Structures are given as C-alpha cells and as structure tokens.
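User: Please fill in residues for this 129-position structure.
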C-alpha cells in the first residue's frame, strides 16, 4: 500500500513547514490527487488517520481534491477528457497524446493555528512516483 508512504511524506513535509512557520498545530491539509496517480483516496484517508497521531497534525482534517484526466492530442493539438480510459483523440482519432493533468499528487495548502508571533504558511509540493 504505497498510500501509507505517500501520507508519511505529506506529514513530514507539513510538519517541517509548520515548524519553520511557527505553527504549533495544523488544522487542515488539502491534497490534489490525479486519477492517474494510482493513489486511492480512501486508503490515503485511512493512512492519514493512523499516521497523524502524536504529530502537530493530530487534529487536522484531510481534504482531497480529485483531478480529472486531461489529455492533448499531438496530432491536432486539441485537449480532451478521455471517456473510460480511452486515450485516442475524439476529434481526429489520433493516438499520440500528452497527459496535461491527472498525475498530480501534491499538497495544495495547509492551515494551522499560529503562535503569538504570527505566521504565513503556503503550498508545498510533494513528488509522486
């Protein structure tokens, strides 16, 4: 189950950024998950619930924003969303395609409670396999 390793990396990244930004508690983490990332949202949520215990993310909620597959035909250059993983172009029937969207797996944002000095916390990408 590679979702456990992915969530472990997400938590490590968020905790490091929270520490650098003086956030003693993370309350929300939002991830972008592409349909081609091969990561199952239910497994990510389960791993998050288990691995967040004892961290600054212990009380955090995990939000998953699914990213649909968007392809570009290299023959006619038009973009399209495949139906049922049928990756040939619906406009020219070309089979040479480029994946524009759908492999994402990254942190969009996270929120936390600030300490008395205040802090801004932004988005940190996580690389996927």
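Assistant: Residues filled in for all 129 positions:
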């Amino acid at each position: 189950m590679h979702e456990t390793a992915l969530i472990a990396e997400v938590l490590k990244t968020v905790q490091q950024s929270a520490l650098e930004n003086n956030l003693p508690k993370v309350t929300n983490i939002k991830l972008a998950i592409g349909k081609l990332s091969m990561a199952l949202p239910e497994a990510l949520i389960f791993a998050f619930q288990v691995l967040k215990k004892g961290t600054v993310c212990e009380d955090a909620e995990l939000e998953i924003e699914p990213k649909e597959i968007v392809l570009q035909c290299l023959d006619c250059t038009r973009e399209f969303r495949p139906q049922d993983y049928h990756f040939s172009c619906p406009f020219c029937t070309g089979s040479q395609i480029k994946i524009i969207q759908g492999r994402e797996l990254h942190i969009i944002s996270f929120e936390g409670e600030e300490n008395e000095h205040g802090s801004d916390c932004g988005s940190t990408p996580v690389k996927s396999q």
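For context: The first helix runs from residue 2 to 20.
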